[in-house]
Amino acid sequence: MQPLSGIKVLDFTTLLPGPLAGLVLSEAGAEVTKVERPEGEEIRKYLPRWGAESIQFNLLNSGKKSITADLKSDADRDRIKSLIAGTDILIEQFRPGVMARFGLGYDAVKQIRPDIVYCSITGYGQFGPKAAIAGHDLNYISETGLLSLSFGNADRTVVPPALIADIGGGTMPAVINILLALLRRNASGEGAYIDIAMSDAMFTYAWWAFGLGKALGEWPGNGDHMLSGGSPRYQIFPTRDGRFVAVAALEQKFWDNLCELVGLEERLRDDQADPAATIGALRAIIGNRTAEEWRAVFEGKDCAANVVRTLEEASTDPHFIERGLFDYSIENDAGARAPALVVPVAPQFRSDKSTPRRAPGLGTGNGPDPAASGSSQER
């Protein structure tokens, strides 16, 4: 039996943070029903398509059900309220106050289901001067100062490769706090309202810089500190053939091993004396060999250095294959299969990997009285 078997979730969210949270809960056994506007959420229409829907929609919504509802319709709201009576968790991602205007805010919903766990995900939270401001991941990491720690330079700015705020500030805190609320409910019978602001957790990600600044008054700048590019021990160096080597030799034993392996001059091994000189010397050394040559040098050595792999290369790595990361699959409406999105749920808690999961067709869970078409839900 899966940990969340029997738990029912109503998911009013779109795009990434909330749908990924719903996917994690679904993978652990919860029954997740997406509540979509009559024309469907926008990510269904994204490109490229994989079957009738986008690959993004298929990845994030496999294993869920879908119902449609025009939340401006009294009849549809009544239908949603009837479902809430049997719901354990409600997740929504509208701007603050929108669900309340629909008569589906926490105060109204807990009158129907007093022990419900109600989770709202927004950029800046339900209150505060920024609460109503629109934004996306890049806005949240820039507004909180996280982006200022490493963004390249004026000639070549760098956009982070991960949606840190969406997943690390939205999805993960939502799942963690929903599970904490369920534990408390099991002990006390008490429901919960959870206010998740994607921007809040960005201060967690800036933990080292935040501590230095607040405690010591030493605020790191752009790429100038230990974990953001200011240290030779934590750097990315180009190879002769246009690939890159990632060095994370923070501990002295790893640094000593790395210096020996690459043949760094003794006078430059004290990386505190002149960090720029040590970085320059390592760039020259690593730039003299190809990625494959360095891969052979680092193989089996305790030096915390490796060649930067492409995502395609990493997806065929025997280590990750043996770990079972790609054992689960999804299937589209045409019967084509692809690996499921890797989610942080332990294998013993997940669904049977031998059966591929499908994303729901729009409104396929409506039943005998599907919602009539109408205007879009308010954003």
UniProtKB/TrEMBL annotation:
InterPro entries: CoA-transferase_III, CoA-Trfase_fam_III, CoA-Trfase_III_dom3_sf, CoA-Trfase_III_dom_1_sf. Pfam families: CoA_transf_3. This is CaiB/BaiF CoA-transferase family protein. Residues 347-379 are annotated as: Disordered. It comes from the Bacteria. One of its GO terms (molecular function) is catalytic activity. It comes from Microbaculum marinum. Transmembrane segments: none annotated.
